[in-house]
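lol forgot to send this yesterday, sorry. struct tokens for the thing we talked abt
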């Protein structure tokens, strides 16, 4: 059924459609423009207007006559359509549709051919019972999941991760707020954020000690020297069998402090004292994440599972040190395997929650360094990067621009939308504008994971996830016997 016709000027990228009164249209629907053997388009906006009651209306008497005397008000609708591809071969349109071109809704069969050929279902087209399946191999070119708070980021991560694991793929989620470690995701493997110091780099330990490696140069030098000597001693004792790992766990910080003390002769005393204070503070707060009894993180990743690293009890610096260490070891292990060594024998997808914190455009973090390295090199070695955020404008622009694929749920903040547009080659302004009107769980998907950009209703994850809104009144009632509200 024809729903309208093209009016005014059109290009090979967009057109304006006059929509007939009886037609039901909304943002996200696919249409066919009957030009050049059929052009597939996506409705990005719909407006209703009237030549009688338009923006320039200023006659109150006229308005009252029209409303209270129940005269019929002439009104019309227009839709902005993003032209996606030729229906025949999915190539870009090369001829703009002329005024008067008929427009109809795309048929399910036509859409199924385009959107249902991937290997993992992510949802359905809006108002259509047409499956949308993504190409999971294309996620190796990296993916950004972006949305306002409450729009469906965690649900999208859970659906995508669980279905990748069902197909035999391996996912690692850095669970910043504890949304996944106690969830109902199938094939779940929870990894406690333990670090074996024998696998640490000096900068990673400095970060754990809250020594800023790019600012506190003397402190960094002190800890680097001491840590190197302690590692050599520990490795020697392990080889000789002269000390148990259990005892080493209790002695590691003691040995580290002793080595730092020995540096008083050659370093500024006040700087040595500062480092010793940092070690003591670390011992009070984070000694539970250091363990020589655990193996390398690579050995704790389970193939075909959704591996969740539970970070919810750690501070910002500890999170940075843990995540960056895991990213470094994963990439190194995949490189080792590609070089014929033991390494990590299967590809992985790493999911970084709260990307605007760990990959900040304004602050240096070790996580940003290693995530940036994976963004540039990971695809060659089978490491796909997925970043998740509700504040895209806070993410390092180089990393965001290398996320070839994007799943964008409702986003209202204008500066966030502008930032997304500036960091994306495959998004247009009218497509980005449309995301403000999305309902929860609706998303614009662009990139190689789909053949052409589309708007999808993401499937609902069937199970328990953390991170929902708390029942504040319910909690108040639960404790009403002990609370005195005065």
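and heres what i got for the seq, position by position
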């Amino acid at each position: 059924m024809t729903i309208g016709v093209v009016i005014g000027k059109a290009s090979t990228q967009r057109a304006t459609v006059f929509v007939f009164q009886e037609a039901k249209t909304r943002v996200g629907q696919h249409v066919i423009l009957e030009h050049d053997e059929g052009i597939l388009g996506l409705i990005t906006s719909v407006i209703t207007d009237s030549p009688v009651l338009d923006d320039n209306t200023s006659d109150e008497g006229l308005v009252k006559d029209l409303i209270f005397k129940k005269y019929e008000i002439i009104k019309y609708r227009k839709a902005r359509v993003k032209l996606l591809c030729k229906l025949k071969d999915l190539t870009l349109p090369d001829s703009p549709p002329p005024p008067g071109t008929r427009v109809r809704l795309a048929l399910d069969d036509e859409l199924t051919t385009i959107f249902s050929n991937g290997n993992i279902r992510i949802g359905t087209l809006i108002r259509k019972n047409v499956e949308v399946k993504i190409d999971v191999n294309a996620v190796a070119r990296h993916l950004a999941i972006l949305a306002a708070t409450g729009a469906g980021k965690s649900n999208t991560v859970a659906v995508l991760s669980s279905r990748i694991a069902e197909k035999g793929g391996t996912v690692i989620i850095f669970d910043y707020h504890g949304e996944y470690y106690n969830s109902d995701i199938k094939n779940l493997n929870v990894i406690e954020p333990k670090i074996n110091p024998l696998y640490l780099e000096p900068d990673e330990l400095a970060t754990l000690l809250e020594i800023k490696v790019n600012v506190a140069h003397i402190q960094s030098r002190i800890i680097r020297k001491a840590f190197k000597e302690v590692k050599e001693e520990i490795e020697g004792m392990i080889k000789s069998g002269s000390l148990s790992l259990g005892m080493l766990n209790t002695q590691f910080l003691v040995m580290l402090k002793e080595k730092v003390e020995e540096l008083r002769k050659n370093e500024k005393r006040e700087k040595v004292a500062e480092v010793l204070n940092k070690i003591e503070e670390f011992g009070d707060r984070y000694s539970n994440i250091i363990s020589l009894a655990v193996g390398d993180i690579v050995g704790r990743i389970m193939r075909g599972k959704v591996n969740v690293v539970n970070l919810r009890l750690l501070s910002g610096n500890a999170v940075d040190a843990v995540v960056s260490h895991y990213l470094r070891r994963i990439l190194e292990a995949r490189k080792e395997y590609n070089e014929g060594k033991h390494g990590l024998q299967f590809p992985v997808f790493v999911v970084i929650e709260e990307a605007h914190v760990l990959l900040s455009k304004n602050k240096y973090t070790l996580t940003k360094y290693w995530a940036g390295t994976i963004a540039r090199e990971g695809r060659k070695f089978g490491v796909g990067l997925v970043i998740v955020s509700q504040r895209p404008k806070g993410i390092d622009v180089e990393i965001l621009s290398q996320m070839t694929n994007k799943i964008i749920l409702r986003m209202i903040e204008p500066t966030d939308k502008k930032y997304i547009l500036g960091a994306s080659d495959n998004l247009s302004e009218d497509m980005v504008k449309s995301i403000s009107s999305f309902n929860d769980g609706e998303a614009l998907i662009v990139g190689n994971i789909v053949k052409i950009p589309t708007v999808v209703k993401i499937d609902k994850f069937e199970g328990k996830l953390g991170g929902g809104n708390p029942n504040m009144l319910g909690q108040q009632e639960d404790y009403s016997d002990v609370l005195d509200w005065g």
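Residues 476-486 have pLDDT under 50 and may be disordered. anyway ping me if u want another try
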